[in-house]
Every structure is written in structure tokens, then in C-alpha cells.
């Protein structure tokens, strides 16, 4: 019996190549069609989730963000965090359209939410997304709490979300009313 042993590095290269080709084929055959079937691959869908609301602001981007922050406080909610792609880009010397996410919640709601469903904790804080459009106008987008928590099918979460729906509506409305 005559055995030829290939060097280890050649075996690894061939094995890895087959692995990557198999993974690519799987993605092309299975994953990509699923994305298109579910609508996830359609980049132009402005509201891919139910309960997503977008409101145009009469104020500029910076003022809209400031007014929302003030409205969060005035409506007795907490600004848990704030993330801004445009501020981060500016810090690197890159100019992009205004883009900020305000993350809003309050501890008493967090305690109730977690008592009802620990997995639902991923939904908090609730995000309010502020974007500056190409024409300089500003939009505010958020998902209603009732839509956000509905998939959990939990009566306690649903009750809490019904309390929060008008709170988030008021935060946005108060901030955008002239």
C-alpha cells in the first residue's frame, strides 16, 4: 500500500476552501431567498416593523434633538443613553447628515417589564430616532411601545405598553409643536 501524505498546510487550505464554498452555496440557496421573501433585503422600506411612526419636525436637526431631550424630562421619563453617528463622524472630520438615537425609559417601567418577561428586556430602552434628510428637514421615528412588546404575548407587558403609548406620543408631540 502506497500512501502519500500531503503537507498539513495544503490540507487546511483545501479544507477551508471547501468549507467556504459550501457556506457560500448555502447562503445563496437558502438565506438570500429567505431575506427577499421576508422583505428584509428591501432597503427602501421606511418602516419594516409594525407600529413604526415617523413625524416631520418643523425644527432643524439640533433643535429637534434638544427639544426631544427636554420633552423626555418634562414627561418624567429618563434619557438612558444617546448615540449619534453624525457626532462620531464629525469627531473623525467626516460630515454626514444628522443622525441621533435617544434611548428612553424609566426604572419603574423596567422593573415591571422584567417581572413580566425577562426576554422582553432587550426592547428597553425604547429608541427615538432623529434623522436629518437631504433637504435639511428633520424626521423623528419611533416604534410604539404596544407594537414593540406585542410579540411577547404577555398581558402584563401589554398593559404596561398601553400606558407607555400616550407617554411616547406626548414626548414627540410636545417636542415638535411650535
Element layout with pairings:
Elements: H1 8-38, E1 52-57, H2 61-74, E2 78-84, H3 85-91, E3 99-105, H4 107-116, E4 126-132, E5 138-143, H5 145-149, H6 155-176
Antiparallel strand pairs: 1-5, 2-3, 3-4, 4-5
Helix pairs in contact: 2-6, 4-6
Provide structural commentary.
A hairpin with a 5-residue loop joins strand 4 (126-132) and strand 5. The longest helix is centred in the N-terminal third of the chain and has 31 residues, at 8-38. A 5-stranded antiparallel sheet has the order 1-5-4-3-2. It is 50% helix and 19% strand. The protein folds into 2 domains: 1-43; 52-176, 2-Layer Sandwich (TATA-Binding Protein). The chain is built from 6 helices and 5 strands; from the N terminus they run αβαβαβαββαα. It is α+β, with helices and mostly antiparallel strands and 178 residues long.
How much of the sequence lies in strands comes to: 15-25%
Number of strands: 5
Q: What is the ordering of alpha helices and beta strands?
A: HEHEHEHEEHH
The CATH topology of the largest domain = TATA-Binding Protein
| Total of domains | 2
The CATH superfamily label of the largest domain reads TT1751-like domain
Q: Give the % helix.
A: 40-55%
Short overview:
This protein is of the alpha+beta class. It has 6 helices and 5 strands. The protein has 2 domains: 1-43; 52-176, TATA-Binding Protein (2-Layer Sandwich), CATH 3.30.310.
What tags apply to this protein structure?
single chain; 178 residues; TATA-Binding Protein; disordered N terminus
Amino acid at each position: 500500500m502506497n500512501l502519500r501524505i500531503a503537507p498539513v498546510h495544503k490540507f487546511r487550505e483545501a479544507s477551508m476552501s471547501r468549507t467556504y464554498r459550501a457556506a457560500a452555496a448555502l447562503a445563496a440557496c437558502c438565506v438570500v431567498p429567505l431575506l427577499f421573501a421576508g422583505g428584509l433585503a428591501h432597503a427602501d422600506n421606511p418602516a419594516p416593523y409594525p407600529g413604526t411612526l415617523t413625524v416631520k419636525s418643523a425644527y432643524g436637526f439640533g433643535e429637534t434633538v434638544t427639544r426631544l431631550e427636554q420633552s423626555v424630562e418634562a414627561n418624567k421619563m429618563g434619557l438612558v443613553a444617546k448615540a449619534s453617528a453624525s457626532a462620531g463622524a464629525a469627531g473623525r472630520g467626516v460630515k454626514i447628515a444628522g443622525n441621533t438615537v435617544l434611548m428612553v425609559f424609566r426604572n419603574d417601567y423596567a422593573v415591571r417589564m422584567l417581572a413580566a418577561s425577562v426576554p422582553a428586556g432587550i426592547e428597553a430602552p425604547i429608541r427615538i430616532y432623529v434623522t436629518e434628510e437631504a433637504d435639511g428637514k428633520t424626521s423623528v421615528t419611533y416604534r410604539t411601545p404596544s407594537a414593540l412588546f406585542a410579540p411577547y404575548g404577555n398581558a402584563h407587558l401589554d398593559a404596561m405598553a398601553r400606558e407607555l403609548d400616550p407617554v411616547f406620543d406626548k414626548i414627540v408631540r410636545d417636542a415638535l409643536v411650535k
